[in-house]
Design brief:
Helices cover about 0% and strands about 40% of the residues. It is mostly beta strands. About 55% of the residues are buried.
């Protein structure tokens, strides 16, 4: 832990990106836990095949939006919303493998809500973990590739990761021995490789990445999460967003406030080689990487079945960074003409694998979701018609697309 303290000392004076919980929301309380979706229009989502359903959390009013992505244009419409649950501040969310259950991490009320998904995509609240395994400032949520476990980062003190078992029939969450697990200070983002045997979380305030072996047999250390030898690993100031390459051999970390040789760039991307058995991280030669100009990379997304990696920042100047990944070495190469000056943001970045669209969330309440198509060779984004899109005056913190 002396290394952690040294890293914290090195970062003294930097702006901490530890998640903060806002004031208690002044919204109308809901009396029924099983309240139905409050829908727009006729309450029906467009027929299957015309696009995708998406869900987005709204911390400011305690609701979850139901969105429709037009498969032909990439346009986004708000189809409905859950009631506003007072004092919850929903943030991270995860979609069950069955696509019939949605889990939402409520950072203010310190619990996890389970929503059932109807055939038309609407949501109804099934339960909240008020008397089950507790969480503290839950921030991000992730389901392992088998669909049997939900993992949640807790930004409270001490920082932890909670693990819940998922009932395959009902979606109900159950206790896991040893949970929650210590994850150093202010854990934020969380990722697993495609193999599902490792877990990594970012620690923005110390610039670190904490690693675990994910072992459901409990053979490694007697619990489902086992600290990786040498963890946490130093990445850079404000280490936040995480993304694997498609093979799971390389891990990329957005260091939002890291300094570079060039004063024209603030922030960079660290690249790590991953020992796929032990979980140990090693810096890729030449890491960290950055374009010639730009500030504050806060989100990361790898394009499926592609060497492209995007990082996004606030604003519209040099705000979308694009790299190509060398599949052999993990080296990042700045794509031609990157960074691109387009409307972007620091809330989320998602690829719609069905339509080939790229979505970015920002803090503009009038038009918080920008949508793009992109060139699969150069990575150049092109805004879709009418982008960015409104979400009824609300700013979504996180969004998930139903595949």
């Amino acid at each position: 832990m002396s290394f952690v303290r040294a890293a914290r000392s090195r970062l003294a004076g930097k702006k901490s990106l530890r998640p903060k919980v806002g004031a208690i929301l002044a919204v109308m309380a809901v009396t029924s836990l099983a309240a139905s979706l409050v829908s727009c229009g006729n309450g029906k989502l467009p027929p299957t095949g015309t696009g995708n359903t998406a869900y987005a959390t709204v911390p400011s009013n305690g609701s979850v939006l139901v969105l429709h992505i037009d498969g032909a244009t990439g346009g986004i419409n708000v189809e409905g919303s859950t009631p506003q649950y007072a004092g919850t501040s929903p943030h991270g969310l995860a979609l069950a493998r069955s696509k019939k259950v949605l889990y939402v991490a409520n950072s203010l009320s310190n619990d996890i809500s389970t929503f059932n998904i109807a055939s038309d995509g609407s949501l109804s609240l099934a339960t909240t973990t008020s008397d089950g395994p507790r969480v503290s400032g839950p921030w991000e949520a992730l389901i392992d590739p088998t669909g049997q476990y939900l993992l949640v980062t807790n930004s409270g003190v001490p920082g932890t990761v909670s693990v819940f078992s998922i009932d395959s029939s009902t979606g109900a969450l159950g206790s896991v021995t040893g949970s929650p697990f210590e994850a150093n200070d202010g854990p934020s983002e969380i990722v697993m490789p495609p193999a599902g045997n490792l877990v990594y979380v970012s620690n923005p305030s110390s610039g670190m990445v904490t690693g675990f072996i994910f072992d459901t047999t409990l053979a490694t250390c007697g619990t489902i999460l086992c600290p990786v030898v040498g963890s946490p690993f130093y990445s850079g100031a404000g280490a936040s967003a995480l993304s694997f390459d498609n093979s799971g051999q390389f891990l990329y970390v957005a260091n939002t406030s890291a300094e570079n040789v060039s004063p024209e760039v603030i922030g960079n991307i660290s690249a790590f080689g991953v020992n796929t058995t032990t979980g140990v991280l090693s810096h890729v030669s030449g890491s960290p990487f950055a374009p010639p100009i730009g500030t504050g990379p806060s989100t990361l997304v790898t394009v499926p079945n592609s060497p492209l990696l995007y990082a996004t920042t606030n604003g519209s100047s040099y705000s979308i960074w694009c790299f190509t990944i060398d599949s052999q070495t993990g080296l990042l190469m700045v794509a031609p003409d990157s960074p691109f000056s387009q409307t972007a943001g620091d809330l989320f970045a998602l690829i719609d694998t069905n339509g080939g669209y790229f979505f970015i969330g920002n803090n503009n309440s009038e038009s918080p979701i920008a949508a793009y198509t992109f060139d699969s060779n150069t990575g150049e984004p092109t805004a879709v018609l009418n982008s960015p899109f409104s979400t009824a005056g609300e700013v979504p913190a996180r969004m998930v697309i139903v595949p």
